[in-house]
Structures are given as structure tokens and as C-alpha cells.
Amino acid sequence: MKLLDCTLRDGGYYTNWDFDSELVDTYIQSFNHLPVDYLEIGYRSNPQPDYLGEYFYCPVYVMDRLKAESKKKLAIILNEKDVRAEDVNSLLAPCKSLIDLIRIAVKPANFERALGLSKVIKKMGFEVSFNLMYMSDWETFPKLFGLMKETEGVVDYLYLVDSYGGVYPEDVRLTIKRVRDKADTKLGFHGHNNLEMALANTLAAIEEGVNIVDSTVTGMGRGAGNLKTELLLTVLNSKGLIEFNYNWLSKVTDPFQQLQNNYEWGTNLPYMVSGANSIPQKKVMGWVTKRFYSFNSIIRALSNQSQGRKDNIELPVFVPNNKFDKVIIVGGGPSVKNHKKAIHNLINREKDNVCLIFASSKNSPHFKSNDYHQIHALSGNEGYRLENTFSDLNTENRIAVFPPFPREMGTYVPKNFENKSYQLEEFYEMKINNESATALCIEIALLINPKEIQFIGYDGYDGIVSEYEIELFNENNIIFEKLDELDINFYSITPTKYDQLQVKSVYSELS
Amino acid sequence: MKLLDCTLRDGGYYTNWDFDSELVDTYIQSFNHLPVDYLEIGYRSNPQPDYLGEYFYCPVYVMDRLKAESKKKLAIILNEKDVRAEDVNSLLAPCKSLIDLIRIAVKPANFERALGLSKVIKKMGFEVSFNLMYMSDWETFPKLFGLMKETEGVVDYLYLVDSYGGVYPEDVRLTIKRVRDKADTKLGFHGHNNLEMALANTLAAIEEGVNIVDSTVTGMGRGAGNLKTELLLTVLNSKGLIEFNYNWLSKVTDPFQQLQNNYEWGTNLPYMVSGANSIPQKKVMGWVTKRFYSFNSIIRALSNQSQGRKDNIELPVFVPNNKFDKVIIVGGGPSVKNHKKAIHNLINREKDNVCLIFASSKNSPHFKSNDYHQIHALSGNEGYRLENTFSDLNTENRIAVFPPFPREMGTYVPKNFENKSYQLEEFYEMKINNESATALCIEIALLINPKEIQFIGYDGYDGIVSEYEIELFNENNIIFEKLDELDINFYSITPTKYDQLQVKSVYSELS
């Protein structure tokens, strides 16, 4: 039975496939002393439209260096969905004599197409494995098991991949038997740890006689992560199956444990729910790592999804009752507080002609009075936040407007808004595929059809900004660009770092 | 089948059984909405000689409060080894009508004695459970299974406790069958998560029909911790066995997850090794949480222990070759650097008559010259540290002296000290049961038998100190007290916060 460590490949989901070269040296040197057969060092890939780092492309100088340092067989993986047979030569010719095993991540639906790819790669002299994803769904692909015979001689290892992290040992045993009935190809197992079943499942696979299993140091890997290499080695050692010096294991575990303090891979309640209910962890990982949504709203969305519904509350469509000449869209920046007096002064001059729309609840405590017309745009998690911001909000002159149904995270109507909540029919102008609060506010404003839209509290960010803040900043800039193409007058009246927002100082508007 | 959550009881190993009352309120209220039957809130205990907090004693006002808040059955646990039948009334009479279930933590060797205790408690009207520890060792107690029949009618639940966290589902199934052959008592399972097998083992126990299983929120519990309540509930829910609102689960998981950032319970390499090799985690928990030993040395010690030896290297006994009038013991404090010039001046006046003994490698870079006679006292982890302090140390005029064999953490002889390492035969004067670096230095000094011992770098601690530093400070004070009882002249020549150290300034000694 062979062991394969895929820390750099699977851990790259957290680091964008960039790793300290010192860490990689420690990794390679430690594994030279550990009873693991293959190290999967990353992807090879055609150029992708996103930034993806060193180990997503594994240029030749990387493969050269690791080949020189490592005494182990090296593997890389290809995403079948992004690679056609005609790409194989350019991607893999440089790997010859450096890489031993080419793995292919295959969706069940593309199994037949992948067989063609495999034949080309095999002819180049590589070992080939199929990492056949979504093992818990295999039964739903009518042709899949019938095709498995064709992997014989074409694929060296056929992996069962527990993509959702939701299978149990009995599922592993059953599926292995099911495949064995069809094909004599050597088998592998790649487990995820959402339910902390990665070890139990892998031990079941080993008992069933699979020929190769995967793990990663500290379990580093997409979402909840993988079987931990240190756990697998410790258990196999205690069973007398392998021998090694624990100092080398500890040497490679230590620095990844430190890295884990930053990236926090590993399972938690949202990953457990997604695993137990076979929901892809790609989406959950985005929600969890952005720290934008509370566990509560993630759990609510997941349990909606697990019950086969995306959202369970449909609201009346928003139609503006009043006519306003001016809409003020309120962001979350501190400029609102800093210029509060002037802003109130400005609104009070024509308050029945002004409608405030809140993109974020953060600044709404500065507008507690119910003299103003106020709309709370409640995208994503904002319903919870609004409720947390005001313990008992008087909703006179206020309504809430949600994005179009169905909403990805479900619908949470905050207290006192039960009969004052509406939804957009669609994103009419701002065609974007998420629940951007700014886009929602603009859509509401456009329906109101004012003479102008003013922005306050769209400050941009200072100092150290999180990845999420950068993303939000870029997204807002794109939205402002789109707004600029429409026939509407808009500008910020508080200081802003957004290039796309023109500014007319709030003070210049006051007499 | 019943579920019992024992977060406060088992989590107390990390917080010394003190918990924020707000956290406890959230805990109790959330569980009011979750399908768990029992909450174990802590211990009841006779006074112990250590500080142990609120939930180790569960005074009546605590039980009153939780009883008023909770809709669940409440449990407390007793340590059988500390409780005799005659203590039962004083400990448990106050629990009547507040507590439903009394659990007793029982070692296999004391099983028979515990039966007597159980009868007394049962007569008081409580439900009783035995948490019978070390299930993987049960077979080694010849009388144990024969006595199990006697639990019928005396014990409501007989728990299999996987104390080491090292069992597998097949062990659970076998042991359950083994007990069932002997007794009809209802069974329970309490799993630990060293090998991330707590869920797999608990599911096996449930399949075998046990009547109650334990878990804790976020797995909080001694050492590697327990089965996670949120994981068990999520899995049972996905299997259609229980229903609940995930918002309540998320509400109680969130604050414990934050607490986990401070205390870092959960499994890691040392706990895996101890689990896989049935080594008690009490000791490992001390090593891991003090952050004093590197993972490397913990692993070395554990793998020694798992091979049935405490240490594998015996060294020649230290016998002083030279006679010195003065010994200077060097601690790790910054005063050594601050007064370096004066210290060197002092030593150089009579350098063949002075021997330096280093309790810590921290200050040894200030004495790089090999003109001085130097001894490195290498307790605990110090061998590794010395090696890391000097990349390539010239050992002329230097030797290393270790504590007596066998050493708890094993023996690490640093590079270049292969033929220059010795050990004490015993701690002759400083009778202490650990590897205190200061005691080791003093023993070495006493063997040299100088006219006086001077201390430098024993500064004590300023500002925010860690729990470990407080412990070290107190330990050193006790050692200085012992030294004071002997007929030897000793004092510090650098500033010190140790009450037990007299001071003669290094400057007063210089002319």
C-alpha cells in the first residue's frame, strides 16, 4: 500500500498556492525521512483569469528544485475540466523525468472524456491516477460503473474522493466492492475531514485493500481539510505497519501548525453541516473564511440547502410609494459620524424630499429619529446586524428591502419589520451575481427615480485592510462604473477613496 | 438513547473549573432548545490542596441557579478515589432535588469499592452511573468482568471510557459484547478524540445499542478533548434521528470556539502519539500546555514511553575534576547582559578559580570564550536549546551535566558534547520530583564544594508573567529556602526579585 502526501496541492486552497520556500524545504527534507511514497506538489494548468501562485502552475524551475531535493516520487494534478487532450503536451512535456505520477481530478459526468486524456498521458510514460470526485453521488450517474472496466491499463490508480466529507466507513466499503465488481484497476482513497471521519474512512479503505491513500500535514486542505498525515503515520506506526523517527514528523508538523493559526483550516459547525448534508464546501469555504457572515446565517443557509430549498420566504415586491428628489445612500464608513451635524443639517432643509437608504446598519444609529424616510437594504447577513444594532427599533417611516428571491443565505426578517419588508423583483440595472449591498441600494434608488443620488460613508479603506475589504472596494468601484453609464446624477458628499465617485463636499451644499 | 453534554465538567481541565457566568447562561439556555438529555455541570468534591474553581465544587448556589435556568436533567461527577462512603452524605445531601444523576469516575482496580459507594448514593434516590476508565486495559484486570453482574440494580449506566483516546470501533463493539455477556446493566460510552475517532467510536457504540453517550461543545475537555457535541448533533440530525434549530447550536458553539483560541484544546501530534500508544494524557497535557518543551522532545519522550522505556541513554556519573573556590550559577534574566562588563571583570580576576554553571542557555552567548570553566546543566529541553543557541560550539573547557537517569523527557546530548556529558547520580540535597534547572545547578555546585555560590541572571519577572513563569518563580524560591538550610554561603550579585536570595552587588565586589 502506498501513501501520498498532497499538502502543497490541497493546502494551496488556503494560501493561493504560494508557500514560503523555507517551509517547502523543510517539507521536502522531512519527508525524505518518512515512509510516504509520493508527494503531490501542485497543479499544472493553462493560464487562469485569477491570481494563482507558484504551486498552481509548478513552473519547471520549481519541479527541478523539488526533484533535486526529494528522494520521493513526485506527483502533480490536472483539473480535467480545464484541460483538453491537445493541451497535454505543452503542460506535461516539461514534467518528463521530474514528475512520476499525473493525477487527474475528474467529475463523474466527465469520466468518459477523462479516459481519453488519460490515454494520451499514459503514452507519454507517466503513471496516471483518476481522482474521481463526489463518491457519494456516483450511484446517480447511470453509465459510470459500466465505464470503469475501461480504466484497466489506462489508469494506475482509481481514487474514491469523498468530496463533501460526508461518507462513513460502510459507504467506503460498499463503494469499493461496487467498483471491484466492475474493474481490476488499483484503487485509492482521498478523504475529507468535515465529520472527523477521514481516518476512520481511510482505515476502512486500507482494510478493504486499496493500493494508495492520501493525506496532508495538519490536514491542510480545502474547507474542512483532509486526513492528517501525522495522524495516519502515528496510527500505522502504533499498529506496527511502518517505522520512522518522530522527530522528522514533528519537524514538518510544527511549521504547518503555525501556518494554521493564520488560515484556520479544519472543521467547524458550517463544514460539519455541509459534510453531513453533501453540500459542496467550495461555497461554504468562501462564507467561512471571509468572516462576513455569522455562523448563524451560514448554518441557516446550509440547513435550507440541505432541505433542498434555497430560501423559504418570499416577500412582496418593492414599489416606491413616495416621490423623492434626492436619495442618500449611506455606507458604513466613519465619515458619517465625523460629518453628522452637516449631514443632518442638509437633510433637514428638505426632509420630506429626501430618502435615506442604508447599505449597512453600522451608521444607522446616527439616524435614530423617525422624522426621516429610511430604507434598510438587507443583503446577506444585514437583517441580523440591524436587529443587533437596535434592541427595539421603532419602524415608523422605515421599511426593509431585500435582494430578489431566492436569496443565497436565506431570508431573515428582523424584529418589527414583519409587515414592512419587500424584495426586488430582479437586479434591473446592476447585473451582478451576488448580493452586493451597494448594488441593492442603487437598484432601490433607481426605482425611486430621484433627481440625484448622494453617497455618504463610502470612505474606502485606510491602513491595513483585509482581503475581504479589498474585494468589497473593487466590487463597489465596478458598480459605480456601471452607474456612470446610466443617466443619473450621483456623487459623494463625504470624503472618499473611490476613484469612480465624484465628490461635492457636504459643506459646499450648505449655505 | 440519551445524550449527555459534559462541557463544564470536562472543559474545566483547561479553565481550572472557572467559567464566565455569562458563558454558562448561554450554555444552559441554548441547551434548553437542543435535544440533549443531561448536562453534567461539574464535580462535587471534598476540599483539595490546590486551587480548583466554582464548577469543581458546585456549591449549592451554583446548583440552585442552574436548576432554575435549565429544563434538562442535571448531573455531577465524583472522583471515586477521593470519596469514601462516609463522605457521601455531606457531598450529596445538598444535591437532592437539584441534581438527577450522580456519575462516579472509577478506575478498574477500584470497581468493587465503587459498588459500595454506588449503593449508598442509589439509596439517596439519585440515578447513578459508573464512568469506568481505561477501557483498553479492562482485560488486564482479572476480576473485573466477573464483578459486572453486581452493577445490575445498583448502577443505572455503566460507561465504557476510552481514557487514552486510543480505541477503534471494533474495540468498542467487542467490549460492549463482552460486558453484555456478563450484565444487563444499561451501557454508556465516553470517547476522547486523540485519534479523531471519537465520532466513529460513538457511532459504533450507538449501533451496538448503548443507552447514553457523552460529548462536549467544541470537544472541550482534558488533553485532546472529547467528541464534539455539535458534530454528534449534526450527524444524528442528518441521519434523521433528531431535529433541532441550528441557530441554538451555533449560539453555544460560537463562544466556546472563542475560548478555544486561548486554551487550544484539541488533538495534535503529542496527543496522537499518547492516544495511539495508550499513554495517559494527564502528563502530556502538562507538557503541551506549558509550552516549555518542544513538540520534538515531547514526541521523543512519548515514543520512549510507548516502547516501554522511560529513557534510553545512560551517561557517566559527574565527578568534579577541579577544585574551585567560587561557582557562579547563571540564570536566564537580562541582568547578565546589562552587567556583562562587571561580571567578566570579576571572573577574570581569578578565572581558574571560578566555575560557571548555566541553568539556561539564554545567557551563554555572553560567555563564548573558552577561557572560563563552564558547565551546561541540561534539564528538560535544554539540550536542544543549547544546540540552537550555538550553531557550532567549541566545547573546550565545557561539559554538560544532566539530571539523574532515567529522565522523564528522555536524553538529548547536543552536538559536540558526545564525550563531555555526565549525569547526577541522584538529587542529593534538593529533593524535588522534577527536573528543575536551578536544583540541578545547585547539586552540581555542591559537588564542586566551593567556598561560595554566586547567582547572576536570577532576576525574577516583570510586568505580565505567564502561569509557567509564576510556577518557576515559586519553585526557585522553595529551592533557595532549602539551600539556606545548608552550610554554604550564597547570594546574588545582580538585581533580583527573589526574596530568598541575598544580594551583594557585583560592583561592590570589584575594586
UniProtKB/TrEMBL annotation, chains A, B:
InterPro entries documented for this protein: Aldolase_TIM, Citramal_synthase, PYR_CT
What name appears for this protein in its UniProt entry? Answer: Pyruvate carboxyltransferase domain-containing protein
Q: State the Pfam families in the record.
A: HMGL-like
The reaction(s) this protein catalyses: pyruvate + acetyl-CoA + H2O = (3R)-citramalate + CoA + H(+)
- What CDD domains has UniProt attached to this entry? DRE_TIM_HOA_like (cd07944)
Instruction: Name the PROSITE patterns on file.
Output: PYR_CT
Indicate the segments forming the Pyruvate carboxyltransferase domain, all copies.
1-252
Pathway assigned in UniProt? Amino-acid biosynthesis
Coiled-coil boundaries: none
